[in-house]
């Protein structure tokens, strides 16, 4: 059993802390946001993540998982200190904002009174490991205390976070201090995953390159989808046919509304920015971002090509979160789509199984006119008197709707399937004017 402190109770921090506790370690999660810690202490989980609430409760009961706003309390006797704070897009051209990581490093320096391994889990620009080391060294309240810094990027997905943490494809550890890296490796040994030990720059780059590659796969298949549409091919079957080739793989070849969320958009931007700064011109990364933005616009274009004007039309939106199984609205395609259709005079009826409240807040922040948006409590309510429905998020419950009832409730049976969850022929035979993405209709 090890004593671990995790700084930051966002997705990565909370899941990391909880899973390490579940593996038998003694974990204290620190966050400076008092309200978040107060809620966690009351047993409320601030994010929607399947299985997380139960796992937190179990480990709190077992006395292995604690929450505090005090760095001193969190750091006391901790052998391992994980930094898992967020690194949003900064103000200059897509650069990553390191403010929270730097703040965490300073706070650690001020409180650290014993040797510890400081592990960075936040996605940070290549070279940040050095910055963290420098900040801690400069601000150490006890200059006689020694420490090591290890980069350990996290690859978990929202919605499958626990499963991904406990069954990683690999664990990446980067450091100039191999002894410290081996200590961290020991924490992960029970997971029986391949462990890659490398230098800190390379570890940081592995994270960016992995996310950028996955984003590239998505933009690639979205470009192929557009070509399929013109030439009469079906991109869904193309992806299946391609995916059998082991060198390609089927994953992340689902054409649709493109990627959103807190990671891909920010990380591709940050990587492109780092390359730009280095005097390179990363053409592929820029194309990936452009195609991703175009996909959102394309859906609204399809709508306009069928309905003509959107003025006074009622548009149903199924799914608001950036993907299924989360209430996360960061960079969700629904926000752009709702802004554009309401901008053209449409009214919106929207439903998401869990993201209603986070969606309302995100729309407010983005200046979307909430008086034009009605939040419904299920898909059938969305369909009532709608002139069209757009499927924006592929929640499972949208895959098994009674489409005859949906059609009967609508004013005009227009279905834009932004996630290709229905079969075009079937929808047409039910009387829908159906448009998928890259499916030749
Ligand atoms: C992503 C990575 O998958 C994780 O490995 C990584 O740890 C994480 O970012 C991160 O950097 O923290 P996440 O953003 O939770 O995880 O979500 P994904 O499941 O990867 O989906 C990202 C976006 O791509 C979603 O908007 C999804 O709808 C879209 N997507 C995914 C597609 O449009 N097509 C696909 O085939 C797959």
Automatic annotation (TrEMBL):
Gene3D superfamilies: Cytochrome c1, transmembrane anchor, C-terminal (1.20.5.100), NAD(P)-binding Rossmann-like Domain (3.40.50.720). The active site is at residue 263. GO terms for biological process: polysaccharide biosynthetic process; UDP-glucuronate biosynthetic process. One of its GO terms (molecular function) is UDP-glucose 6-dehydrogenase activity. NCBIfam families: NDP-sugDHase. It comes from Thermogemmatispora aurantia. Belongs to the UDP-glucose/GDP-mannose dehydrogenase family. NAD(+) binds at residues 31, 36, 87, 123, 158, 266, 330. Its EC number is 1.1.1.22. This is UDP-glucose 6-dehydrogenase. The keyword Oxidoreductase applies.
